[in-house]
Amino acid sequence: MLSQSILENKSKNNKKNSHFKQKFKEWFEVLPFIGLGLVLLSVFVVYPQIKNIYMAFTNYNIMPGQPSEFVGFANFMRAFHSEKFWLAFRNTVLYGVVTVPGQMAIGLIVAVLINNVIKGKNLYKVMIYIPVITSWIVVSLIFKYLFTDGKEGLINYALLKLHLISNPISWLQNTWTANFVIWVLGIWKGIGWVMVIYLAALQGIPNELYEAAEVDGANPVQTFFKIIIPLIKPTTFFILINLIIGAFGVFIQVMMITNGAPLGTTDVLLNYMYNRAFSDFEFGYASAISVIIGIVIMAITLLQKRLLKYDEFNY
Amino acid sequence: MSKKVISVLVAAILALTFVMAGCSSNSGTKKTTDNSSVNDTQKVEPVTIEFWHTFSDTEDKILNEQIIPDFEQKYPNIKVKATRMPYDGLKQQVISAVAGNATPDVMRMDIIWVPEFAKLGALQPVDNLEGFDAIKEKAFKGPMETNYFNGHYYGIPQDTNTKIAIYNKTLLQQAGLTEPPKTFDELVAAAEKIKGKDRWGIAISGTGPWGIAPYFLSLGGKVTDDKYTKATGYLNSPESVAALQKLIDLYNEKLIGPCILGGQPDTWGGMKGNNYLMIDDGPWFYSIQGDAAKQSTVPALFPQGPGGSISVVGGEDLVLFKTTKHPKEAWIFMQYMFSETPQKLLAQQAGLIPTNMDVANSSDVSGDPIISLYVQQLKTAWPRTPSPNWGKIDETLGQAFEKVFRGKATPQQALDEAAKQIDEFLQNN
Fold first, then answer.
1. Would you give the distance in Å from CA B50 to the centre of its chain?
2. Transmembrane segments in this chain: where (chain A) (predicted)?
3. pLDDT band at residue A4, thresholds of 50, 70 and 90?
4. Is ipTM beyond 0.95?
5. What is the pTM assigned to this prediction?
6. Superfamily in which the A76-307 domain is placed by CATH
7. In this complex, do B264 and A278 lie within 8 Å of one another by their Cβ atoms?
């Protein structure tokens, strides 16, 4: 009896040991494949992030080898009491509120349209996708020139010729027209990506469902709202989260087009952070802002996961 | 089995590359140290110093084709690797270089950055180096002082500049004038005569100090006391408020063009398109645009207002970075750049105003009518408050003026608030 239980134990231990050995062997085998990636990740992603959090609590000195004074939460308090920080925060949130639904609605419509054309599908796809892969810098400059003030600007010129306006609009000199330009650019550049993801989802819907709907007498509008929209719900959530995170990263177009002008009323968080760090040399304060941005994004993502339940559809 | 072999192979190759990379870089550093030891024993192995600058096209050509060859001929042991940097984003680039220990040896830097980088600890003081006192004696005082921070000089002046008034010849004739207005009142009278659709009398390039200060100061405004310690009582004095109010009135009467708030046409475009009677700019206006601009415009001193004819001092200093490996050679190059040959070449061929008084007063340079105008304007020009916090002061002033032009604040409100903030910046120098 006793010897039997000992024996059993022993075999269990053996099993455990061999299990570890197995794991170890697996790790050893995959290490060459992920090792380099792991090293790069720690050097270029993990380490900078940890250092950034540390910097946020100091009055950071950029000179190598110089001491940086620890200031606790002073940088964070300064941000919360700064009018300009809240302006930038407001504009970042507004950018998300306007451009995320804009990109999703237009992207979905375009995807459905392309899914239904018979000839030239790829041509349309490429045309709509080109803005996504174009450089932010280039398109920002182009938009800046398109929306130049005075009657020489292309948009003003067109609107004047069409008699839609009687005086040229100073697009970039007013808070809301300048924000409008930034939003339009954001939507225009994002449609292609939304379209591609939605197209993939649309192709996953089995044809039988469309056929059944047709037999039941559904018109195209009903099909769109009753078949397509519910079936691509998981994709919609995926796109939503990605776009919201992306919206918090709005930066280059603002820096290139307005740089916050007029009077910081079009500034966004990243541009505000960039200028504090690289124009004013306030690296500690800028790091604190980046930590705040990180926390907000994390909170939004967790909240979304809570609020929107992922439903997987089984056809 | 074969899987295992492959993974082991991959691991081995990876390990090998790392080791080899390590080896090659090691041997590389060894070689360079060998070189420098050869240098010490007087064998002619040239030292290369790196020089960053923001010279314009014309100036860059003079530097590479005439100045550097002349220097390398005089000092065969020193090679100069000159890199032209774009001004946009340059401050950020220098900051990253400082943080990453990748600075050049010498840089020609905007005068307003020197105290800021000196405070950061990126620059080496040069006032203890041999030959500095001779340079200080020969240099114009204003530009020299832009290198001063906390008891030391952190560079030497390379070139200086200011802005003068530039008038459109066609519009000047239409206003019934044969020569540029001498006083601000005359200018306003002329502006009223030519005022019309797409026509303005005065074009100010922006609300930042570099753009608006000449008008604000000539009209009697002040920024700080003479010792740069206090703005309250100066920036918001009745004279300053009146000066700003006058500018606002002119803007509302459409005598000042839309470019002050970033609208179109900009100053150069408006000068070419006969939209603006008067703009202001530095010597590069003529060196970049060439003879065509000389034909169609008339340069003159800033018109006199209640405060006089006061412009802004600009320019570039040569600084020595702390991380340089060849301070001796770099300093030789800096001294050379202050000497007669390069200063004269840049003055005569590119219109850069020399900081070396001997060169500025020599007849070849002072004979040029445009350069002599700039030199004359410089005598009364305002050196922007030398302070490591100048960047923030600049932003504060610019936003205060912008608020007023956009009708978001009265001159008194905006200047009161700005003066209070600037006081703080000046105290935290």
1. 20
2. 30-50, 93-114, 126-147, 180-201, 237-263, 283-303
3. low
4. no
5. 0.80
6. MetI-like (1.10.3720.10)
7. no
